[in-house]
Amino acid sequence: MTKKQKKMVYRLLTSAVFLIAGVILEGKTSWAWIPFAVSYLFAGYDIPLKAVRNISHGQVFDENFLMTVATLGAIGIGALEEAVAVMLFYQVGELFSDYAVNRSRKSITELMDINPEYANVIRDGKEEQADPYEVEIGETIVIKPGEKVPLDGIVLKGYSSLDTKALTGESMPVEVKENDPIVSGSININGVLEVRVTKLFDDSTVAKILELVENASSRKAKAENFITKFARVYTPVVVGLAVVLAIVPPLILGGGFSVWIYRACSFLVVSCPCALVISVPLSFFGGLGAASRQGILMKGSNYLEAMAYLDTVVFDKTGTLTTGKFQVTGVHAVKGTDEELLKLAAYGEFHSNHPIALSVKEAYGQEIIQDQIHSAEEIAGHGIHGEISIDGSDHDLYIGNQRLMESRGINITEQPEIVGTTLYIADGSEYLGSIVISDTVRKDVPEALKGLRESGVRHLVMLTGDKPEVGKAVADSLGLDEVYGGLLPGDKVGKVEELLGRKGDGRTLGFVGDGINDAPVLARADVGIAMGGIGSDAAVEAADVVIMTDEPSKLVDAIKIARKTIGIVKQNIVFAIGVKVLVLILTAFGHATMWAAVFADVGVSVLAILNAIRALGYKR
Questions:
Q1: What is the pTM (predicted TM-score) of this model?
Q2: Number of domains in the chain
Q3: Burial classification of residue 512, based on how many CB atoms lie within 10 Å of its CB (0-12 exposed, 13-18 middle, 19 or more buried)
Q4: Per the domain annotation, does 159 fall within a domain?
Q5: pLDDT in tens, 77-111
Q6: Active site residue 163
Q7: Domain ends where: 163, 198, 233?
Q8: Which of 160, 336, 349, 386 has the fewest CB atoms below 10 angstroms from its CB?
Q9: Of the residues 62, 316, 427, 601, which is catalytic?
Protein backbone atom coordinates (compact mmCIF):
# COMPACT_ATOMS: atom_id res chain seq x y z
CA MET A 1 0.00 0.00 0.00
CA THR A 2 1.38 3.41 -1.00
CA LYS A 3 1.74 6.39 1.38
CA LYS A 4 -1.13 8.10 -0.42
CA GLN A 5 -3.37 5.09 0.14
CA LYS A 6 -2.40 4.85 3.83
CA LYS A 7 -3.22 8.53 4.29
CA MET A 8 -6.63 7.96 2.71
CA VAL A 9 -7.30 5.00 5.02
CA TYR A 10 -6.64 7.21 8.08
CA ARG A 11 -8.94 9.88 6.66
CA LEU A 12 -11.75 7.42 6.06
CA LEU A 13 -11.38 5.79 9.49
CA THR A 14 -11.58 9.23 11.14
CA SER A 15 -14.60 10.10 8.99
CA ALA A 16 -16.31 6.85 10.00
CA VAL A 17 -15.75 7.58 13.71
CA PHE A 18 -17.34 11.03 13.42
CA LEU A 19 -20.20 9.61 11.34
CA ILE A 20 -20.96 7.08 14.07
CA ALA A 21 -20.79 9.87 16.66
CA GLY A 22 -23.25 11.93 14.63
CA VAL A 23 -25.67 9.00 14.34
CA ILE A 24 -25.50 8.47 18.14
CA LEU A 25 -26.08 12.18 18.90
CA GLU A 26 -28.78 12.69 16.26
CA GLY A 27 -32.09 13.64 17.90
CA LYS A 28 -30.43 14.08 21.31
CA THR A 29 -28.78 17.46 20.75
CA SER A 30 -28.98 20.33 18.32
CA TRP A 31 -25.21 20.09 17.84
CA ALA A 32 -25.37 16.66 16.14
CA TRP A 33 -24.65 18.33 12.79
CA ILE A 34 -21.07 19.11 13.90
CA PRO A 35 -19.73 15.49 13.84
CA PHE A 36 -21.54 15.01 10.52
CA ALA A 37 -19.82 18.10 9.10
CA VAL A 38 -16.41 16.96 10.38
CA SER A 39 -17.02 13.47 8.94
CA TYR A 40 -17.97 14.98 5.56
CA LEU A 41 -14.85 17.14 5.46
CA PHE A 42 -12.49 14.28 6.39
CA ALA A 43 -14.07 11.98 3.83
CA GLY A 44 -14.48 14.30 0.88
CA TYR A 45 -13.09 17.81 1.25
CA ASP A 46 -11.06 17.25 -1.93
CA ILE A 47 -14.04 16.24 -4.10
CA PRO A 48 -15.63 19.76 -4.31
CA LEU A 49 -12.16 21.23 -4.84
CA LYS A 50 -11.54 18.84 -7.77
CA ALA A 51 -14.99 19.67 -9.17
CA VAL A 52 -14.24 23.43 -9.10
CA ARG A 53 -10.79 22.92 -10.62
CA ASN A 54 -12.16 20.73 -13.41
CA ILE A 55 -14.95 23.20 -14.16
CA SER A 56 -12.32 25.94 -14.52
CA HIS A 57 -10.63 23.71 -17.12
CA GLY A 58 -13.89 23.19 -19.01
CA GLN A 59 -14.59 19.70 -17.67
CA VAL A 60 -17.97 20.08 -15.97
CA PHE A 61 -19.83 16.79 -15.95
CA ASP A 62 -17.49 14.39 -14.17
CA GLU A 63 -17.98 12.20 -11.08
CA ASN A 64 -16.55 14.92 -8.79
CA PHE A 65 -19.24 17.34 -9.97
CA LEU A 66 -21.99 14.73 -9.58
CA MET A 67 -20.91 13.76 -6.05
CA THR A 68 -20.55 17.38 -4.96
CA VAL A 69 -24.00 18.42 -6.21
CA ALA A 70 -25.66 15.25 -4.87
CA THR A 71 -24.18 15.44 -1.36
CA LEU A 72 -24.52 19.22 -0.94
CA GLY A 73 -28.10 18.92 -2.17
CA ALA A 74 -28.79 16.20 0.42
CA ILE A 75 -27.28 18.39 3.14
CA GLY A 76 -29.46 21.30 1.99
CA ILE A 77 -32.65 19.29 2.61
CA GLY A 78 -31.39 17.97 5.96
CA ALA A 79 -30.36 14.44 4.91
CA LEU A 80 -27.00 14.80 6.70
CA GLU A 81 -26.47 11.16 7.57
CA GLU A 82 -27.03 9.97 4.00
CA ALA A 83 -24.97 12.77 2.45
CA VAL A 84 -21.96 11.92 4.62
CA ALA A 85 -22.40 8.18 4.06
CA VAL A 86 -22.55 8.69 0.29
CA MET A 87 -19.27 10.66 0.33
CA LEU A 88 -17.59 8.18 2.68
CA PHE A 89 -18.54 5.11 0.65
CA TYR A 90 -17.69 6.87 -2.60
CA GLN A 91 -14.17 7.49 -1.28
CA VAL A 92 -13.94 3.88 -0.10
CA GLY A 93 -14.73 2.83 -3.66
CA GLU A 94 -12.11 5.23 -5.03
CA LEU A 95 -9.52 3.87 -2.59
CA PHE A 96 -10.33 0.33 -3.63
CA SER A 97 -10.11 1.14 -7.33
CA ASP A 98 -6.80 2.95 -6.81
CA TYR A 99 -5.41 -0.13 -5.06
CA ALA A 100 -6.67 -2.37 -7.87
CA VAL A 101 -5.15 -0.15 -10.56
CA ASN A 102 -1.79 -0.14 -8.77
CA ARG A 103 -1.89 -3.91 -8.47
CA SER A 104 -2.57 -4.26 -12.21
CA ARG A 105 0.03 -1.63 -13.07
CA LYS A 106 2.65 -3.47 -11.02
CA SER A 107 2.67 -6.48 -13.33
CA ILE A 108 3.60 -4.23 -16.25
CA THR A 109 5.83 -1.74 -14.46
CA GLU A 110 7.90 -4.63 -13.08
CA LEU A 111 9.40 -4.48 -16.56
CA MET A 112 10.68 -1.01 -15.68
CA ASP A 113 12.98 -2.67 -13.14
CA ILE A 114 15.01 -3.99 -16.07
CA ASN A 115 16.26 -0.45 -16.68
CA PRO A 116 19.96 -0.47 -15.67
CA GLU A 117 21.33 2.35 -13.51
CA TYR A 118 24.99 2.00 -14.51
CA ALA A 119 27.53 0.04 -16.54
CA ASN A 120 30.99 -1.09 -15.42
CA VAL A 121 33.24 0.00 -18.31
CA ILE A 122 36.91 -0.85 -18.78
CA ARG A 123 38.73 2.31 -19.88
CA ASP A 124 42.52 2.76 -19.94
CA GLY A 125 42.85 -0.62 -18.25
CA LYS A 126 40.68 0.42 -15.29
CA GLU A 127 37.10 -0.40 -14.42
CA GLU A 128 34.79 2.56 -13.85
CA GLN A 129 31.04 3.08 -13.48
CA ALA A 130 29.33 5.01 -16.28
CA ASP A 131 25.85 5.92 -17.39
CA PRO A 132 24.67 3.30 -19.95
CA TYR A 133 23.86 6.19 -22.35
CA GLU A 134 27.57 7.14 -22.37
CA VAL A 135 28.92 3.71 -23.35
CA GLU A 136 30.04 3.41 -26.98
CA ILE A 137 29.85 0.45 -29.37
CA GLY A 138 33.00 -1.68 -29.10
CA GLU A 139 33.75 -0.81 -25.47
CA THR A 140 34.12 -3.62 -22.93
CA ILE A 141 31.83 -3.80 -19.91
CA VAL A 142 32.00 -6.06 -16.86
CA ILE A 143 28.81 -7.56 -15.44
CA LYS A 144 29.08 -8.97 -11.93
CA PRO A 145 26.72 -11.43 -10.16
CA GLY A 146 23.41 -9.78 -9.24
CA GLU A 147 23.83 -6.90 -11.68
CA LYS A 148 21.53 -6.05 -14.58
CA VAL A 149 22.92 -6.41 -18.08
CA PRO A 150 23.05 -2.74 -19.14
CA LEU A 151 23.66 -3.07 -22.89
CA ASP A 152 23.45 -5.62 -25.70
CA GLY A 153 26.72 -7.28 -26.59
CA ILE A 154 28.86 -10.39 -27.15
CA VAL A 155 30.48 -12.30 -24.28
CA LEU A 156 34.27 -11.98 -24.52
CA LYS A 157 35.15 -13.84 -21.36
CA GLY A 158 33.34 -15.74 -18.61
CA TYR A 159 30.46 -18.14 -18.07
CA SER A 160 27.21 -17.44 -16.23
CA SER A 161 23.46 -17.94 -15.97
CA LEU A 162 21.08 -15.12 -16.81
CA ASP A 163 17.64 -14.48 -15.35
CA THR A 164 15.52 -13.37 -18.33
CA LYS A 165 12.14 -13.73 -16.57
CA ALA A 166 11.27 -10.03 -16.84
CA LEU A 167 11.86 -10.18 -20.59
CA THR A 168 10.53 -13.60 -21.56
CA GLY A 169 8.29 -14.78 -18.72
CA GLU A 170 10.45 -17.92 -18.46
CA SER A 171 11.67 -18.96 -15.02
CA MET A 172 14.56 -21.15 -16.23
CA PRO A 173 17.94 -19.34 -16.35
CA VAL A 174 19.76 -19.05 -19.69
CA GLU A 175 23.39 -20.21 -19.82
CA VAL A 176 25.84 -17.92 -21.66
CA LYS A 177 29.52 -18.40 -22.48
CA GLU A 178 32.24 -16.91 -24.65
CA ASN A 179 31.02 -15.65 -28.07
CA ASP A 180 27.34 -15.89 -27.05
CA PRO A 181 25.11 -12.84 -27.63
CA ILE A 182 23.71 -11.21 -24.50
CA VAL A 183 20.78 -8.78 -24.24
CA SER A 184 20.17 -5.89 -21.88
CA GLY A 185 17.49 -6.24 -19.22
CA SER A 186 18.62 -9.69 -18.06
CA ILE A 187 20.08 -10.21 -14.58
CA ASN A 188 23.45 -11.91 -14.15
CA ILE A 189 23.04 -14.70 -11.58
CA ASN A 190 26.48 -16.09 -10.77
CA GLY A 191 29.62 -15.68 -12.92
CA VAL A 192 31.53 -12.54 -13.92
CA LEU A 193 31.16 -11.64 -17.61
CA GLU A 194 33.22 -9.41 -19.86
CA VAL A 195 31.08 -8.20 -22.75
CA ARG A 196 31.84 -6.24 -25.91
CA VAL A 197 29.03 -3.72 -26.50
CA THR A 198 27.30 -4.08 -29.89
CA LYS A 199 24.52 -1.46 -29.57
CA LEU A 200 24.12 1.98 -28.05
CA PHE A 201 21.67 2.13 -25.14
CA ASP A 202 19.01 3.91 -27.23
CA ASP A 203 19.08 0.99 -29.68
CA SER A 204 19.32 -1.76 -27.05
CA THR A 205 16.69 -4.38 -26.30
CA VAL A 206 15.87 -2.91 -22.90
CA ALA A 207 15.32 0.59 -24.33
CA LYS A 208 13.01 -0.73 -27.05
CA ILE A 209 10.94 -2.73 -24.54
CA LEU A 210 10.65 0.17 -22.09
CA GLU A 211 9.47 2.44 -24.88
CA LEU A 212 6.91 -0.17 -25.94
CA VAL A 213 5.55 -0.56 -22.40
CA GLU A 214 5.36 3.18 -21.78
CA ASN A 215 3.36 3.73 -24.98
CA ALA A 216 1.03 0.73 -24.60
CA SER A 217 -1.61 2.55 -22.54
CA SER A 218 -2.01 5.28 -25.18
CA ARG A 219 -3.52 2.91 -27.74
CA LYS A 220 -7.09 2.29 -26.62
CA ALA A 221 -9.40 -0.51 -27.63
CA LYS A 222 -12.77 0.17 -29.30
CA ALA A 223 -14.54 -0.75 -26.06
CA GLU A 224 -12.49 1.84 -24.12
CA ASN A 225 -13.19 4.54 -26.69
CA PHE A 226 -16.88 3.64 -26.57
CA ILE A 227 -16.97 4.06 -22.78
CA THR A 228 -15.20 7.44 -23.01
CA LYS A 229 -17.71 8.71 -25.59
CA PHE A 230 -20.62 7.14 -23.68
CA ALA A 231 -19.64 8.92 -20.44
CA ARG A 232 -19.42 12.29 -22.24
CA VAL A 233 -23.00 11.97 -23.45
CA TYR A 234 -24.46 9.98 -20.56
CA THR A 235 -23.36 12.25 -17.69
CA PRO A 236 -24.84 15.56 -18.95
CA VAL A 237 -28.06 13.74 -19.87
CA VAL A 238 -28.55 12.35 -16.35
CA VAL A 239 -27.70 15.73 -14.81
CA GLY A 240 -30.41 17.26 -16.97
CA LEU A 241 -32.85 14.53 -15.94
CA ALA A 242 -31.99 15.13 -12.28
CA VAL A 243 -32.77 18.85 -12.65
CA VAL A 244 -36.06 17.99 -14.32
CA LEU A 245 -36.82 15.46 -11.57
CA ALA A 246 -36.20 18.08 -8.86
CA ILE A 247 -38.29 20.88 -10.43
CA VAL A 248 -41.01 19.59 -12.76
CA PRO A 249 -42.93 17.05 -10.59
CA PRO A 250 -43.55 19.43 -7.64
CA LEU A 251 -44.65 22.17 -10.04
CA ILE A 252 -47.11 19.84 -11.79
CA LEU A 253 -48.17 17.64 -8.89
CA GLY A 254 -47.84 20.28 -6.15
CA GLY A 255 -46.37 19.69 -2.69
CA GLY A 256 -42.88 20.35 -1.30
CA PHE A 257 -39.64 20.31 -3.24
CA SER A 258 -37.62 18.43 -0.59
CA VAL A 259 -38.87 14.96 -1.55
CA TRP A 260 -38.08 15.50 -5.24
CA ILE A 261 -34.72 17.14 -4.51
CA TYR A 262 -33.86 14.07 -2.41
CA ARG A 263 -34.78 11.83 -5.33
CA ALA A 264 -32.78 14.01 -7.71
CA CYS A 265 -29.73 13.81 -5.42
CA SER A 266 -30.09 10.01 -5.26
CA PHE A 267 -30.44 10.04 -9.05
CA LEU A 268 -27.10 11.88 -9.36
CA VAL A 269 -25.36 9.44 -7.03
CA VAL A 270 -26.57 6.48 -9.09
CA SER A 271 -25.61 8.15 -12.35
CA CYS A 272 -21.85 8.31 -11.59
CA PRO A 273 -20.24 6.26 -14.39
CA CYS A 274 -17.36 5.14 -12.13
CA ALA A 275 -17.98 1.42 -12.59
CA LEU A 276 -17.56 1.74 -16.35
CA VAL A 277 -14.92 4.46 -16.49
CA ILE A 278 -12.67 2.58 -14.04
CA SER A 279 -13.35 -1.12 -14.61
CA VAL A 280 -13.17 -1.23 -18.43
CA PRO A 281 -9.65 0.30 -18.74
CA LEU A 282 -8.63 -1.69 -15.66
CA SER A 283 -9.73 -4.92 -17.38
CA PHE A 284 -7.56 -4.15 -20.41
CA PHE A 285 -4.69 -3.10 -18.16
CA GLY A 286 -4.99 -6.42 -16.33
CA GLY A 287 -4.97 -8.27 -19.65
CA LEU A 288 -1.82 -6.44 -20.77
CA GLY A 289 -0.24 -7.29 -17.40
CA ALA A 290 -1.16 -10.98 -17.67
CA ALA A 291 0.35 -11.09 -21.17
CA SER A 292 3.58 -9.41 -20.03
CA ARG A 293 3.95 -12.04 -17.30
CA GLN A 294 3.99 -14.65 -20.06
CA GLY A 295 6.63 -12.77 -22.05
CA ILE A 296 4.05 -11.39 -24.50
CA LEU A 297 4.24 -7.64 -25.03
CA MET A 298 1.29 -5.91 -26.69
CA LYS A 299 1.59 -2.34 -27.93
CA GLY A 300 -1.89 -1.36 -26.80
CA SER A 301 -5.27 -2.62 -25.64
CA ASN A 302 -6.54 -2.22 -29.23
CA TYR A 303 -4.25 -5.08 -30.26
CA LEU A 304 -5.30 -7.09 -27.20
CA GLU A 305 -8.91 -6.67 -28.35
CA ALA A 306 -8.00 -7.64 -31.94
CA MET A 307 -6.30 -10.85 -30.72
CA ALA A 308 -9.60 -11.95 -29.19
CA TYR A 309 -11.21 -12.09 -32.64
CA LEU A 310 -8.32 -13.76 -34.49
CA ASP A 311 -9.79 -15.84 -37.30
CA THR A 312 -6.88 -16.35 -39.71
CA VAL A 313 -3.23 -16.83 -38.73
CA VAL A 314 -0.55 -16.56 -41.41
CA PHE A 315 2.94 -17.85 -40.57
CA ASP A 316 6.32 -17.17 -42.05
CA LYS A 317 8.22 -20.47 -42.29
CA THR A 318 11.90 -19.96 -41.61
CA GLY A 319 12.61 -18.74 -38.08
CA THR A 320 8.94 -18.98 -37.07
CA LEU A 321 7.56 -22.48 -37.70
CA THR A 322 11.07 -23.81 -38.24
CA THR A 323 14.23 -23.08 -36.28
CA GLY A 324 16.07 -21.49 -39.21
CA LYS A 325 18.99 -23.81 -38.43
CA PHE A 326 20.02 -26.39 -41.01
CA GLN A 327 20.61 -30.01 -40.03
CA VAL A 328 21.69 -33.06 -41.99
CA THR A 329 18.53 -35.14 -42.44
CA GLY A 330 19.78 -37.71 -44.96
CA VAL A 331 23.06 -39.22 -46.19
CA HIS A 332 22.88 -41.35 -49.36
CA ALA A 333 26.16 -42.92 -50.51
CA VAL A 334 26.32 -44.70 -53.88
CA LYS A 335 29.94 -45.69 -53.32
CA GLY A 336 31.33 -46.58 -49.91
CA THR A 337 29.40 -46.06 -46.68
CA ASP A 338 27.26 -43.13 -45.50
CA GLU A 339 29.82 -42.48 -42.74
CA GLU A 340 32.68 -42.22 -45.26
CA LEU A 341 30.65 -39.86 -47.47
CA LEU A 342 29.85 -37.58 -44.51
CA LYS A 343 33.54 -37.55 -43.48
CA LEU A 344 34.65 -36.53 -46.98
CA ALA A 345 32.03 -33.75 -47.08
CA ALA A 346 33.07 -32.43 -43.65
CA TYR A 347 36.74 -32.27 -44.70
CA GLY A 348 35.82 -30.60 -47.97
CA GLU A 349 33.64 -28.00 -46.22
CA PHE A 350 36.09 -27.35 -43.38
CA HIS A 351 37.08 -23.80 -44.36
CA SER A 352 33.53 -22.66 -45.21
CA ASN A 353 31.28 -20.78 -42.76
CA HIS A 354 28.15 -21.19 -44.87
CA PRO A 355 25.15 -22.54 -42.80
CA ILE A 356 25.09 -25.67 -44.97
CA ALA A 357 28.80 -26.31 -44.39
CA LEU A 358 28.38 -25.75 -40.67
CA SER A 359 25.55 -28.29 -40.53
CA VAL A 360 27.68 -30.89 -42.33
CA LYS A 361 30.60 -30.39 -39.91
CA GLU A 362 28.22 -30.55 -36.94
CA ALA A 363 26.71 -33.82 -38.22
CA TYR A 364 30.22 -35.31 -38.62
CA GLY A 365 31.03 -34.28 -35.04
CA GLN A 366 34.66 -35.46 -34.99
CA GLU A 367 37.99 -33.68 -35.07
CA ILE A 368 39.19 -32.67 -38.52
CA ILE A 369 42.94 -32.92 -39.17
CA GLN A 370 43.77 -29.78 -41.13
CA ASP A 371 47.06 -31.17 -42.48
CA GLN A 372 45.03 -33.58 -44.60
CA ILE A 373 43.36 -30.66 -46.41
CA HIS A 374 45.69 -29.53 -49.21
CA SER A 375 43.48 -26.96 -50.94
CA ALA A 376 39.95 -25.59 -50.95
CA GLU A 377 38.31 -23.03 -53.23
CA GLU A 378 34.74 -21.80 -53.42
CA ILE A 379 33.03 -21.89 -56.81
CA ALA A 380 30.51 -19.04 -56.64
CA GLY A 381 26.91 -20.20 -56.98
CA HIS A 382 27.95 -23.82 -57.35
CA GLY A 383 29.87 -25.18 -54.34
CA ILE A 384 33.42 -26.11 -53.33
CA HIS A 385 36.41 -27.81 -54.95
CA GLY A 386 38.97 -29.26 -52.57
CA GLU A 387 41.94 -31.64 -52.55
CA ILE A 388 42.30 -33.81 -49.43
CA SER A 389 44.07 -36.98 -48.27
CA ILE A 390 42.25 -39.35 -45.92
CA ASP A 391 43.35 -42.80 -44.81
CA GLY A 392 46.17 -42.85 -47.36
CA SER A 393 43.92 -41.97 -50.29
CA ASP A 394 43.91 -38.73 -52.27
CA HIS A 395 40.58 -37.18 -53.24
CA ASP A 396 39.74 -34.45 -55.78
CA LEU A 397 36.43 -33.41 -54.26
CA TYR A 398 33.58 -31.46 -55.80
CA ILE A 399 30.81 -30.64 -53.31
CA GLY A 400 27.83 -28.53 -54.32
CA ASN A 401 24.56 -28.25 -56.20
CA GLN A 402 23.29 -29.93 -59.35
CA ARG A 403 24.75 -27.17 -61.56
CA LEU A 404 28.23 -27.99 -60.28
CA MET A 405 27.80 -31.66 -61.16
CA GLU A 406 26.46 -30.80 -64.63
CA SER A 407 29.37 -28.40 -65.28
CA ARG A 408 31.79 -31.27 -64.53
CA GLY A 409 29.86 -33.72 -66.68
CA ILE A 410 29.10 -35.90 -63.66
CA ASN A 411 26.05 -38.13 -63.89
CA ILE A 412 23.90 -37.98 -60.71
CA THR A 413 22.36 -41.27 -59.65
CA GLU A 414 18.68 -40.86 -58.66
CA GLN A 415 18.26 -40.43 -54.89
CA PRO A 416 15.27 -41.10 -52.59
CA GLU A 417 12.95 -38.08 -52.54
CA ILE A 418 13.61 -36.13 -49.36
CA VAL A 419 12.65 -32.48 -49.26
CA GLY A 420 15.49 -30.13 -48.43
CA THR A 421 18.70 -28.72 -49.85
CA THR A 422 20.71 -31.47 -51.57
CA LEU A 423 24.50 -31.43 -51.50
CA TYR A 424 26.10 -33.62 -54.21
CA ILE A 425 29.61 -35.05 -53.74
CA ALA A 426 31.97 -36.31 -56.44
CA ASP A 427 35.59 -37.47 -56.46
CA GLY A 428 37.04 -36.28 -59.73
CA SER A 429 34.46 -37.44 -62.28
CA GLU A 430 33.07 -40.20 -60.07
CA TYR A 431 29.75 -39.50 -58.30
CA LEU A 432 29.88 -40.60 -54.62
CA GLY A 433 26.41 -39.68 -53.31
CA SER A 434 24.40 -36.90 -51.74
CA ILE A 435 23.63 -35.30 -48.39
CA VAL A 436 20.26 -33.70 -47.67
CA ILE A 437 20.18 -30.58 -45.47
CA SER A 438 16.83 -29.48 -44.02
CA ASP A 439 15.43 -26.84 -41.72
CA THR A 440 13.74 -28.42 -38.66
CA VAL A 441 10.30 -27.65 -37.23
CA ARG A 442 10.26 -26.02 -33.78
CA LYS A 443 9.40 -28.45 -30.98
CA ASP A 444 6.23 -26.76 -29.77
CA VAL A 445 4.78 -25.89 -33.20
CA PRO A 446 2.40 -28.94 -33.34
CA GLU A 447 1.13 -28.01 -29.85
CA ALA A 448 0.70 -24.38 -30.94
CA LEU A 449 -1.26 -25.27 -34.07
CA LYS A 450 -3.48 -27.67 -32.14
CA GLY A 451 -4.13 -24.94 -29.55
CA LEU A 452 -5.02 -22.44 -32.29
CA ARG A 453 -7.52 -24.86 -33.81
CA GLU A 454 -9.08 -25.47 -30.39
CA SER A 455 -9.26 -21.70 -29.82
CA GLY A 456 -11.45 -21.33 -32.90
CA VAL A 457 -8.88 -20.08 -35.42
CA ARG A 458 -10.35 -21.36 -38.68
CA HIS A 459 -7.61 -20.74 -41.21
CA LEU A 460 -3.87 -21.51 -40.88
CA VAL A 461 -1.62 -20.40 -43.75
CA MET A 462 2.14 -20.48 -44.37
CA LEU A 463 4.16 -18.13 -46.58
CA THR A 464 7.79 -18.81 -47.43
CA GLY A 465 10.55 -17.65 -49.70
CA ASP A 466 11.78 -21.25 -49.85
CA LYS A 467 11.10 -23.56 -52.78
CA PRO A 468 7.39 -24.45 -53.15
CA GLU A 469 8.03 -28.17 -52.69
CA VAL A 470 9.94 -27.52 -49.46
CA GLY A 471 7.15 -25.30 -48.14
CA LYS A 472 4.49 -27.83 -49.13
CA ALA A 473 6.29 -30.66 -47.33
CA VAL A 474 6.47 -28.63 -44.09
CA ALA A 475 2.85 -27.48 -44.42
CA ASP A 476 1.60 -31.03 -45.07
CA SER A 477 3.49 -32.39 -42.08
CA LEU A 478 1.87 -29.74 -39.85
CA GLY A 479 -1.63 -29.93 -41.31
CA LEU A 480 -1.85 -26.31 -42.50
CA ASP A 481 -4.71 -25.21 -44.74
CA GLU A 482 -2.70 -23.34 -47.37
CA VAL A 483 0.93 -22.75 -48.31
CA TYR A 484 2.58 -20.38 -50.77
CA GLY A 485 6.28 -20.80 -51.63
CA GLY A 486 8.96 -18.93 -53.55
CA LEU A 487 7.76 -15.54 -52.27
CA LEU A 488 9.77 -12.35 -51.92
CA PRO A 489 8.80 -9.93 -49.07
CA GLY A 490 6.69 -7.91 -51.54
CA ASP A 491 4.91 -11.08 -52.70
CA LYS A 492 4.08 -11.90 -49.07
CA VAL A 493 2.36 -8.52 -48.68
CA GLY A 494 0.27 -9.27 -51.75
CA LYS A 495 -0.77 -12.67 -50.39
CA VAL A 496 -1.72 -11.17 -47.03
CA GLU A 497 -3.83 -8.53 -48.79
CA GLU A 498 -5.55 -11.31 -50.74
CA LEU A 499 -6.28 -13.19 -47.52
CA LEU A 500 -7.53 -10.00 -45.84
CA GLY A 501 -10.12 -9.72 -48.60
CA ARG A 502 -11.38 -13.23 -47.84
CA LYS A 503 -11.74 -13.06 -44.06
CA GLY A 504 -15.15 -12.60 -42.45
CA ASP A 505 -16.50 -9.31 -41.13
CA GLY A 506 -15.53 -8.58 -37.55
CA ARG A 507 -12.71 -11.12 -37.68
CA THR A 508 -8.99 -10.37 -37.72
CA LEU A 509 -5.93 -11.71 -39.53
CA GLY A 510 -2.65 -12.10 -37.70
CA PHE A 511 0.74 -12.54 -39.36
CA VAL A 512 3.45 -14.28 -37.35
CA GLY A 513 7.04 -13.68 -38.43
CA ASP A 514 10.55 -13.44 -37.02
CA GLY A 515 10.49 -9.65 -37.28
CA ILE A 516 13.78 -9.41 -39.16
CA ASN A 517 12.77 -9.44 -42.83
CA ASP A 518 8.99 -9.52 -42.43
CA ALA A 519 8.40 -5.88 -41.43
CA PRO A 520 6.20 -5.01 -44.48
CA VAL A 521 3.90 -8.00 -43.83
CA LEU A 522 3.79 -7.43 -40.06
CA ALA A 523 2.65 -3.86 -40.73
CA ARG A 524 0.01 -4.89 -43.29
CA ALA A 525 -1.80 -7.53 -41.20
CA ASP A 526 -4.57 -6.63 -38.74
CA VAL A 527 -2.20 -7.82 -36.01
CA GLY A 528 1.53 -8.21 -36.66
CA ILE A 529 3.03 -10.76 -34.27
CA ALA A 530 6.82 -11.05 -34.01
CA MET A 531 8.55 -14.13 -32.62
CA GLY A 532 11.77 -13.98 -30.64
CA GLY A 533 11.72 -10.29 -29.80
CA ILE A 534 14.95 -10.57 -27.81
CA GLY A 535 17.77 -9.28 -29.94
CA SER A 536 15.53 -8.35 -32.86
CA ASP A 537 15.07 -4.59 -33.25
CA ALA A 538 12.84 -5.12 -36.27
CA ALA A 539 10.47 -7.27 -34.19
CA VAL A 540 9.89 -4.59 -31.58
CA GLU A 541 9.62 -1.85 -34.20
CA ALA A 542 7.33 -3.46 -36.78
CA ALA A 543 5.05 -5.75 -34.78
CA ASP A 544 1.91 -4.99 -32.78
CA VAL A 545 2.49 -7.97 -30.49
CA VAL A 546 5.95 -9.26 -29.55
CA ILE A 547 6.44 -12.79 -28.21
CA MET A 548 9.77 -12.47 -26.44
CA THR A 549 10.71 -16.15 -26.78
CA ASP A 550 10.81 -18.48 -29.77
CA GLU A 551 7.71 -20.38 -28.64
CA PRO A 552 4.80 -20.29 -31.11
CA SER A 553 2.61 -21.89 -28.41
CA LYS A 554 2.56 -18.54 -26.59
CA LEU A 555 0.36 -17.29 -29.41
CA VAL A 556 -2.37 -19.49 -27.91
CA ASP A 557 -1.76 -17.88 -24.50
CA ALA A 558 -2.12 -14.43 -26.09
CA ILE A 559 -5.48 -15.37 -27.63
CA LYS A 560 -6.78 -16.89 -24.37
CA ILE A 561 -5.73 -13.82 -22.36
CA ALA A 562 -7.37 -11.53 -24.93
CA ARG A 563 -10.64 -13.48 -24.95
CA LYS A 564 -10.77 -13.66 -21.16
CA THR A 565 -10.20 -9.90 -20.98
CA ILE A 566 -12.90 -9.10 -23.56
CA GLY A 567 -15.32 -11.40 -21.71
CA ILE A 568 -14.69 -9.51 -18.46
CA VAL A 569 -15.14 -6.14 -20.21
CA LYS A 570 -18.52 -7.22 -21.63
CA GLN A 571 -19.65 -8.54 -18.25
CA ASN A 572 -18.78 -5.26 -16.54
CA ILE A 573 -20.52 -3.13 -19.18
CA VAL A 574 -23.76 -5.17 -19.05
CA PHE A 575 -23.73 -5.47 -15.24
CA ALA A 576 -22.95 -1.80 -14.53
CA ILE A 577 -25.39 -0.34 -17.04
CA GLY A 578 -28.11 -2.83 -16.10
CA VAL A 579 -27.96 -2.15 -12.36
CA LYS A 580 -27.71 1.62 -12.81
CA VAL A 581 -30.67 1.83 -15.20
CA LEU A 582 -32.79 -0.27 -12.82
CA VAL A 583 -31.93 1.83 -9.75
CA LEU A 584 -32.33 5.10 -11.72
CA ILE A 585 -35.90 4.10 -12.61
CA LEU A 586 -36.67 3.00 -9.04
CA THR A 587 -35.20 6.24 -7.67
CA ALA A 588 -37.22 8.43 -10.04
CA PHE A 589 -40.45 6.79 -8.84
CA GLY A 590 -39.47 6.97 -5.17
CA HIS A 591 -38.88 3.24 -4.67
CA ALA A 592 -35.16 3.55 -3.91
CA THR A 593 -33.40 5.61 -1.26
CA MET A 594 -29.99 7.20 -1.32
CA TRP A 595 -28.65 4.04 0.34
CA ALA A 596 -29.71 2.07 -2.74
CA ALA A 597 -28.04 4.78 -4.82
CA VAL A 598 -24.80 4.24 -2.87
CA PHE A 599 -24.89 0.53 -3.68
CA ALA A 600 -25.66 1.21 -7.34
CA ASP A 601 -22.62 3.46 -7.54
CA VAL A 602 -19.98 2.27 -5.06
CA GLY A 603 -21.15 -1.34 -4.79
CA VAL A 604 -21.32 -1.85 -8.54
CA SER A 605 -17.92 -0.17 -8.95
CA VAL A 606 -16.30 -2.45 -6.38
CA LEU A 607 -17.84 -5.59 -7.91
CA ALA A 608 -16.85 -4.51 -11.42
CA ILE A 609 -13.29 -3.77 -10.27
CA LEU A 610 -13.03 -7.15 -8.53
CA ASN A 611 -14.17 -8.75 -11.77
CA ALA A 612 -11.65 -6.70 -13.76
CA ILE A 613 -8.78 -7.89 -11.58
CA ARG A 614 -9.50 -11.44 -12.78
CA ALA A 615 -7.87 -10.48 -16.08
CA LEU A 616 -4.54 -10.57 -14.24
CA GLY A 617 -5.05 -14.14 -13.07
CA TYR A 618 -4.19 -16.04 -16.26
CA LYS A 619 -1.98 -19.07 -15.70
CA ARG A 620 -0.46 -21.08 -18.51
A1: 0.70
A2: 2
A3: buried
A4: yes
A5: 777 887 888 788 888 877 876 776 666 556 555 55
A6: no
A7: 198
A8: 336
A9: 316
